[in-house]
């Protein structure tokens, strides 16, 4: 639960018009003094006293990452804000409250709907006044502008890369390897596996069964250590295998990238979509070998559970 903090500067003073909630966070149990949770709290409460605010609530997340808002006390604080339990959130530094300025902008907008402001002890962030809100909007606008510029530069770079038919990341699809120029070369061994997957799917008409058989046959790759229905689907739906290169709005046929024919790809697509028509809505039953494997897996898991229970 949120901890109700007393007014440490003057315990006998009556509540003021502004109720503050102090939020403090550490990301590990070994934070340096400057980031220690007790020091954060002390400085925040001291600032509340200087501003004439009543320290009403204290929310502390210890050893919690700031990468998102999935922190126990942070969530309680947001719920309390919705219930208008306080008027301003005071924190020592922005990175204790939010992962970035842009993220703080989103949170500020959400809190503003409940008439709750933000105040940083160590930075020029204070939305309790009209001037502070104006300043915060300017900072937010500058941050958003920078983000858009980065996004545009990234898209321009990606477009330039795509025009040269290069691959945008270090992990090309199964069947290819990336050469020194950034283009794709066909990996002959993996290309045979891709052809086999398309061919076997037309016979089995089942991605789970095909994944099961590929694993049983040891047909894994350097990247795919175990086949799943999703991994099989990623292969069967990738038009790059027909030579159709599609990156950053650049769509072009590249003959040297082709592993299977367009006709075979269309056959597989037709089989994948067969259940969308009402003429053939019956699915094939699960093969006995796959049933046996699933049953064995459940039994082994149950045995492990019994062994753990008996050892305690």
Characterise this structure.
The structure is a single chain. Strand 8 and strand 9 form a beta hairpin. The protein has a 5-stranded mixed sheet, with helices on both faces. Strands 6-7 form a two-stranded antiparallel ribbon. A two-stranded antiparallel ribbon has the order 8-9. The longest helix is centred in the middle third of the chain and has 34 residues. It is built from 10 helices and 9 strands.
Task: Give me a quick take on this structure.
The protein is α/β, with parallel strands linked by helices and 312 residues long. 47% of the residues lie in helices and 12% in strands.
End-to-end separation in angstroms reads 33 Å
Radius of gyration: 29 Å
Secondary-structure-based class equals: alpha/beta
Number of DSSP helices? Answer: 10
**Beta strand %:** 5-15%
List the helices and strands and how they pair.
Blueprint: E1 3-4, E2 19-25, H1 37-51, E3 54-61, H2 72-82, E4 88-91, H3 94-97, H4 101-112, E5 117-120, H5 130-163, E6 176-178, E7 184-186, H6 188-204, H7 207-216, H8 229-236, E8 244-247, E9 250-253, H9 262-272, H10 288-311
Parallel strand pairs: 2-3, 2-4, 4-5
Antiparallel strand pairs: 1-3, 6-7, 8-9
Index terms:
five-stranded mixed beta sheet, alpha/beta, 9 strands, elongated, two-stranded antiparallel ribbon, 312 residues
């Amino acid at each position: 639960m949120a901890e109700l903090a007393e007014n440490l500067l003057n315990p006998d003073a009556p509540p003021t018009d502004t109720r503050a909630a102090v939020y403090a966070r550490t990301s590990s149990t070994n934070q340096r003094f400057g980031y220690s949770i007790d020091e954060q709290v002390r400085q925040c409460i001291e600032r509340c006293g200087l501003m004439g605010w009543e320290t009403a609530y204290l929310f502390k997340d210890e050893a919690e990452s700031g990468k998102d808002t999935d922190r126990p006390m942070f969530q309680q604080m947001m719920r309390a804000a919705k219930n208008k339990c306080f008027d301003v959130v005071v924190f020592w530094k922005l990175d204790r409250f939010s992962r970035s300025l842009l993220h703080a902008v989103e949170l500020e907008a959400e809190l503003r709907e409940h008439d709750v402001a933000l105040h940083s002890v160590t930075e020029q962030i204070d939305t309790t006044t009209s001037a502070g809100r104006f300043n915060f909007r300017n900072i937010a606008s500058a941050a958003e502008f920078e983000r858009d510029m980065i996004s545009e530069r990234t898209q321009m770079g990606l477009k330039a890369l795509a025009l040269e038919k290069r691959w945008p990341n270090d992990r090309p699809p199964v069947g290819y390897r990336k050469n020194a120029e950034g283009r794709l070369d066909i990996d002959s061994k993996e290309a045979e596996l891709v052809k086999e997957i398309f061919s076997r799917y037309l016979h089995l008409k089942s991605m789970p069964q095909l994944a099961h058989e590929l694993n049983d046959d040891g047909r894994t790759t350097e990247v795919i250590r175990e086949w799943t229905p999703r991994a099989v689907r990623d292969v069967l739906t990738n038009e790059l295998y027909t030579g159709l290169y599609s990156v950053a709005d650049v769509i072009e046929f590249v003959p040297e990238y082709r592993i299977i024919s367009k006709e075979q790809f269309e056959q597989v697509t037709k089989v994948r979509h067969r259940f969308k028509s009402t003429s053939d809505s019956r699915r094939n039953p699960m093969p006995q070998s796959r049933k046996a494997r699933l049953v064995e897996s459940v039994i082994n898991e149950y045995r492990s559970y019994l062994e753990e229970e008996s050892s305690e």
